[in-house]
Design goal:
With 150 residues, the chain is of the alpha/beta class. The protein is built from 7 helices and 6 strands. Helix 4 links the parallel strand 4 and strand 5.
């Protein structure tokens, strides 16, 4: 599992590195306005496709699955999948809107089968220079630990 922390200065360079368009799939909790930031990619949602078994349906049809399900790695066997999975820390669009460029960087850089959890500190919305009490990086959340063995 990878937890991404971003330096503001590198975002523009990494966003520009998207070398190919990917098929990106949002679960029911992922805010749809985020799709505007991923305009380079083809974004579909579980709701519009009417799917219920999301991972099985998405495997082979999409390259990246964007979810807000923090427990996915405990509920599903993620080993051997080609589908890259990006977990957002919240379903709340206002909390995702400001750091949405971090989502774009993550999606653009995910190889097949990768699993990543994004984290950002709630203090960031109050003050970009505030430090989280649980970590040493301004605006960063602590690492939730490694994914369980697959």
């Amino acid at each position: 599992m990878t937890v991404l922390k971003f330096a503001e200065s590198s975002l523009t360079v990494q966003i520009a590195r998207a070398s190919r368009s990917m098929r990106v799939f949002f679960d029911q909790g992922t805010p749809v306005p985020l799709s505007h930031a991923l305009a380079l990619h083809e974004v579909s949602t579980a709701f519009e496709l009417g799917w219920s078994n999301l991972l099985r349906e998405a495997e082979g049809r999409f390259e990246v699955f964007v979810t807000t399900d923090q427990n996915l790695r405990y509920q599903q066997n993620l080993g051997g999948r080609r589908l890259a999975i990006l977990v957002l820390p919240t379903t709340n669009w206002p909390e995702i809107q400001r750091p949405q460029s971090e989502v774009v960087v993550a999606v653009n850089s995910m190889p097949p089968g990768d699993y990543r959890e994004l984290r950002w500190c709630a203090l960031e919305s109050v003050s970009p220079n505030a430090k989280c009490a649980n970590c040493s990086t301004p605006g960063a959340s602590p690492n939730p630990g490694p994914a369980p063995s697959q």
